[in-house]
Amino acid sequence: MAMDFEGRIAVVTGGAGGIGRGLVHALLTRGAHVVVADVEAPALADAIDDLASLGTVRGVLTDVADPESLEGLADDVYSREGRCDLLFANAGVTSGGGGLPWEQEINDWRWCFSVNVFGVAQTVITFLPRMLEAGRPAEIIATSSGDGGVAPVPYASVYAASKAAVSCFIEAVAHQLRTVGAPVNAHVFYPGGGLLDTGLWTAARNRPAELERVRPRAPAPGTTFAEFKAQLEATGLPAEIVDLDRLGAQVLDDLARGRYILGSDSDRFGPLLHARADAIGQGELPPTLLH
Fold first, then answer.
1. Of 44, 168, 210, 231, which is least packed with CB atoms within 10 Å of its CB?
2. Do residues 97 and 223 touch, judged by C-beta distance below 8 A?
């Protein structure tokens, strides 16, 4: 039986732009009531203004790297909406310029992991006990990435490591929820289907001053969307830009089908994972998403 999103309460972190906004758009078009959590006040206000005609939506300024901010979000949702049926732990950042792994600084790790790993973990830790206490069917969806969640990406080592951590954590959550017979399920979302033109490319705009690099340097080649797209086109690789609203709709379709893995690239992952397993079994360096 297809999942009915009508009237369900959804919370989307990082929902004011990019993939998060696509998720919010899809949820609203299917009748969900959406709380958009985002760290950027102007972007949040613009998103609510633009999407309000689609349904019931409101915004809450939230920094997922701050546990108190997430507690405030949960308190706000449960005091006003009374429950959370669909939790999208979607907020994410890059690591600050890519490049060679040994050129990254510890602050690149601190910033990236504070949002991508600790932010996702704290989102789940904050909401899941309340969702379980409610005893209602509910879903948790965490945004990971094939870049790390499936195979490492040498030119984005810190980001890939953070997404690998997200995938491992959510898989553990999903197993434990099934073990205890909870009415809540967990899922991992791998965005894909082409080039993703999102705020991730300019995530440094929200980087805290205390986590800036100690030794500033120019970004590595290919770390802007335009540069990366041009690199793909120059090598003859596909460079089609993904419709993020359509991607959001696909996530809900996958969710309604009861899938654990959500997203459009899962058909690519099986062969790659088999190749990686074969290499590991032979004691060899496994292939990456680039090979």
1. 210
2. yes
* Residue 56: CB atoms within 10 Å: 14
Separation between Cα atoms, residue 202 and residue 122, nearest integer Å: 24
Hey, what amino acid is at 75? D
What are the b/e assignments for 216-255, b being 16+ CB within 10 Å?
eeeeeebbebeebbeebeeeeeeeeebebeebbbbbbebb
Read off the pLDDT of each residue in 85-110 and give the average, rounded to a whole number.
90
pLDDT score of 187: 98
Q: How many CA atoms lie within 13 A of 130 on its CB side?
A: 20
187: burial class by Cβ within 10 Å (0-12, 13-18, 19+)?
A: buried
Known catalytic membership, residue 159: yes
E strand or H helix at 156, and its extent? none
Q: Write out pLDDT tens, residues 198-224.
A: 777 667 888 888 999 888 777 666 567
Q: What is the pLDDT of residue 128?
A: 98
pLDDT tens-digit readout, 246-269 = 999 999 999 999 999 999 777 778
In the prediction, which pLDDT does 1 show?
A: 43
Please tell me the distance from the alpha carbon of residue 17 to that of residue 13, in angstroms, as a whole number. 10
Residues 6+ apart with CB under 8 A from 202: none
Report the percent of the chain where pLDDT is more than 90: 70
Beta bridge partner(s), residue 11: 35, 87
Write down the catalytic residue from 155, 159, 190, 260. 159
Q: 0.90 exceeded by the pTM?
A: yes
